[in-house]
Structures are given as C-alpha cells and as structure tokens.
Design a protein that fits this description.
Elements: H1 12-18
Biased composition (Pro residues): 1-11
Biased composition (Polar residues): 12-21
Region (Disordered): 1-21
Length: 21
C-alpha cells in the first residue's frame, strides 16, 4: 500500500525531526 499523504520515516533522521530529543 502506498500512502502519499503519510509516509513512515525510512531512517531515524526523519523521526528526530518530528520528535527532537
């Protein structure tokens, strides 16, 4: 399934942008 509106981060780098520590 391809979701253009929501794409899970391929790496932790993207996650850090959403959830900065």
């Amino acid at each position: 399934k391809d979701v253009p509106t929501f794409r899970p981060p391929p790496c932790s780098t993207s996650t850090l942008s959403l959830f900065p520590e």
